Amino acid sequence: MSQINQSITPNAKRLLWAGFTAILAAGIGFGVRGGIFANWAQDYNFTGTELGMIGGAGFTGFCFGIIIGGVIVDKIGYGKLVIAAFVLHVASAFITFGAAPGPMAYSFLFWGMFTFALANGTLEAVANPLVATLFPNARTHYLNILHASWPLGMVFGGIIGWTLGSGENAWPWKWQLALYLVPTIAYGIMFLGQKYPKSEASAKGLKIGAMFKDVGLLSGAVVCYMLYLFTKGTLQPSFAADSNVPNMIAAVVGIGLLGVIGAMTRFALGHWLLFVLFIAHAMIGAVELGTDGWIQNITGAILNPSEGKILFVFTSLIMFGLRFCAHFIEKKIGLSPIGLLFICSLLAVAGLNLVSAVQTFGPAFGALAVYAIGKTFFWPTMLAVVGDRFPSTGAVAMSLMGGVGMMSAGLVGTPGLGYFKDRLAAEELATAAPALYAQHQAAKPSSFLFFQEATAIEPQVLEAAKAAAGAKKLVELGETDPKVVALAATLTADQQTVVDADIRGNRRTLKVDSLIPAAMAVIFLLLIFYFKSIGGYRPLSVGEAGATAPAAPAPRKEPASV
Q1: Which CATH superfamily groups domain 11-215+270-426+508-533?
Q2: Where are the alpha helices (DSSP H) in 265-336?
Q3: pLDDT in tens, 105-131
Q4: Residue whose C-alpha is closest to residue 496's, from 474, 480, 479, 473
């Protein structure tokens, strides 16, 4: 049997495809949600920042699921967590579908997305360490296959929005979103009655404190800071805008949890490399998933909504296909996982800047192809690096890092892009037509982290203008539907000015976004130099990995990959 097909249990492939189907359900829900942001803005008068916060809840809940699940999975087993995830997936549908126009709409959508993400996180606390354990000789390959289901889910989600989200026979957004329950039922059946292996760390009898040692205070601080941001953001709406209570409570939560990690590890500092990987993965969450949450909206505004959906499906198909090629890239071309991450970072920078400049549909295909290739290998390859270099952490480090990535997507990427869309579009309109901007300012300001507050364009005004401008573009392309023609005829000069400002703001937002993979490229380049200095990148066993000293160099009889 070839090394790539070696596994440690006869049902390895069934467990792999069950995990694949579970992540597929998450991808479909995510893909559909990206296409119905405009529905929520129109129905509930949400600003881009509010939509970003709701979309962000679709990531932050993931963190709790994967962190809690990752800590306990080696103790209670994979099966119980699969059952919990299934129940949460079904419950999230009922919560989300309770949204109706009124003051409670935001809460239903926020907590529905949070519960959905909690289910996704719980599943990944199972699937990631499970696949890493099942295929110890080809983690990069099989983790990329596992996560190929995410872009495939986005393809299905994009097609749902493309075919069922518009036109005379369009489905209500709740019906569209409900389709993620189909693969949910499928993965429940596929996992049913299966036996699961133990991780290498669990099989060797390592205690939870030992599994946390490489995490230590350094990487623990990254996790706790993300939890601080989440707690603060969750509590803020319940207090006055100038109240410091949410900050104080969030600080107690973050510092308290860091103290717990310190006590568990006897205040071990942790491995510096794992800390760097956690920082890099926070950036990956922000630039990959945060951008994915907005990309249909942004490209749909620059071109038209239908073309935005087509491009979203196109880029997701590229990711799906390429994730089956990780083994070829690693073994045949000779790129190590770190080298692959470096190249992908450069491509992501180029892709985002190219997308920001597109004017027509054809060039947009090429620009988004570059971006899609760049982001394809980020997430699963980072998980493989942690599995390779820190096997003594069991499911803990892999799950914590995944949680950091998703929490960053929810707290930094999605709301951050929403904020910059609001701010930069408003700046463009204020420059082009100050009186028009003064007339159409949103009632609520947009804010994000330490950046200055910005006053967005009134969401309903913006969406109405975009709808009319989009209809005009379709008519120019030959659309003859009477409703589309009638809507195009309503476009006013003021509305076109608003739409043009929004497009310029979207272009600037993508350029700001490209700074994140630029920083990642610097990190991965430095890690390439580090691994060269110790003999090259290679997987380690539990006995070799330690929190206080770098691993021994690779044997000289094998050429080291870079």
Answers
A1: MFS general substrate transporter like domains (1.20.1250.20)
A2: 272-284, 290-302, 305-322, 326-327
A3: 888 888 988 898 899 889 888 888 888
A4: 473
